[in-house]
Amino acid sequence: MTIAGLSVGAASPVAAQTAAATATVPVNRAARDTWTPVMDVLKAQRRPVTDAQLARLAELPIEAVWGGLQGKRYQHCFVTGFQTTQPTAKLVGRALTMRYLPVRPDLQEAVDTLAKEGDWDFQYNVRAGEDAKAGDVIVVEQGGMVTRATFMGDVTGLGMKMAGVKGVIIDYLGSHASAMADQVGVEWNVPIRLGVMTVLPGDVVIADASGVLAFPPQLTDEVIKSAEDTVYTENFKREMMRSRKYRARDIYPKLSPELEKVFAEWQKTHQKEGVKPN
Question: What pTM does this model have?
Answer without folding.
Answer: 0.87
